[in-house]
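Hi everyone,

Forwarding the result from last night's run.
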Amino acid sequence: MKENNLSNRQLLVLVIARVLMGWYCLYEGMVKVMNPNWSSFAYLNDSQGWFAGIFKAMASNPGLVSVVDFLNEWGLVAIGLGLILGLLTRVATISGVVLISLYCLSHPSLIEANYMLPSSETAMWVGKNLIFVFLLLILLLFPTGHIIGLDRLLFKKKN
């Protein structure tokens, strides 16, 4: 493991970013878990862009929708807790990149796209999910869990 070359301010900003992103994921996951009527079906079926066929095919299979629902709900919860606590931060960050990238592929910020739930959170090709992915990639390049987080205890160097 490399030595920490971050200033205190850099470390503080990165840890705050990690916790905020974790809170967002945890909240989104818990909202889905707590709502017995939530399903990914409508989102998958509303997919547009290059990969719409894949996501619509997933929506057409009720068994697969159940798997997607479980992975989405509890994946967001686990990613959120990992980022907030600095626990298995690398796994949480990579998992977040994968999951949120799937959101980007399902609902790309295309000019001609008209989704069921219109969003003002896109600016011609750049949406919040794409920004979120790149923020996670920054956290992957500048990991903080081993400095401030449970990873510090979990992966403690033995003398």
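The chain has one domain: 13-154.

Cheers,
N.
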